Amino acid sequence: MKEKAWWRSRPIAHRGLHSGREVPENSLLAFERAIAAGHPIELDVIVLKDGTPAVFHDEDLLRLTGVLGLTRSLTKAHLKLLRIYGGDQRIPTLKEVCELVQGRVPLMIEIKCDKATGRDEAAIVQVLKDYQGEVAIQSFNPYVILWFKKHAKHFTCGLLSYDYRDSESNLSEGKKIFLRHLAFVPLVRPDFLSIDHEYLRSKAVSFYRDWVKIPVISWTVRSQARRAEIAQLCENIIFEGFSIS
């Protein structure tokens, strides 16, 4: 029997195995911890002003660095000046992460991109072109996935989705946006769906999982109890905050 692909079977560490301020999210230290535990790593990539793919989640810098400003306005030179939570960890580039990991565990790269211009995607592919490890790509932006399907077909690609509620949206509106987003699935034809664990029972997700046979990964799972509850609703999880042996 053929073994399942890693992204379908091996629990993935959300932003590395991080732990508060001591081991910050998306830091080289968090990635080292994940490697030591043998977990695939989920990480976020934002392409900077100068075209450098940086590993960072937030659109602005304040929460993690205490500095006012937009992440995309930075250059590679700026990264050396910033520290995460004021400690010894800084914002790494995607190249630095690849040099650290060296294929020892797979990488699940979430691309943060509002629109697909080709610039950001091409910059990421350029970094990955000689990388020998296993990599999968995911994004909330369906046009990012379409770009990869056209220009870098060798990558496994997944579409991220959740309920899209914010402080001004009620539950009903969030569901409508969620369904409009999943309507892109037939166009994008992702290799997998990466779904907020609260929405795994959605009829749309069930349809794609059970009838179209698109594998589903659940995020972000934060306890063994929750993992057990959703075990029959997804093939794999992106997790944080608890140990998986």
Topology of this structure?
Layout: H1 6-9, E1 12-14, H2 28-37, E2 41-47, E3 53-55, H3 62-65, H4 76-79, H5 94-101, E4 107-111, H6 119-128, E5 135-139, H7 142-151, E6 156-161, H8 171-182, H9 185-188, E7 192-196, H10 203-210, E8 216-221, H11 224-229, E9 236-239
Parallel strand pairs: 1-2, 1-9, 2-4, 4-5, 5-6, 6-7, 7-8, 8-9
Antiparallel strand pairs: 2-3
Helix pairs in contact: 2-5
For the largest beta sheet, what order do the strands appear in spatially?
1-2-4-5-6-7-8-9
Percent range for β-strand residues: 15-25%
What general outline do the C-alpha atoms trace? globular
| CA radius of gyration | 17 Å
Helix content: 25-40%
Compute the average pLDDT. Answer: 94
Largest sheet: 8 strands, parallel, barrel
Q: How many E-type strands?
A: 9
Distance between the termini: 24 Å
Number of helices: 11
Structural class: alpha/beta
Can you write the helix and strand succession as a string?
HEHEEHHHEHEHEHHEHEHE
Low-confidence stretches: none
Quickly list its features.
245 residues; 33% helix; globular
Describe the structure.
The chain is of the alpha/beta class. It is 33% helix and 18% strand. Helix 10 links the parallel strand 7 and strand 8. Helix 2 packs parallel to helix 5. The protein is globular.
Task: Describe this structure in a few short sentences.
This protein is α/β, with parallel strands linked by helices and 245 residues long. The protein contains 11 helices and 9 strands.
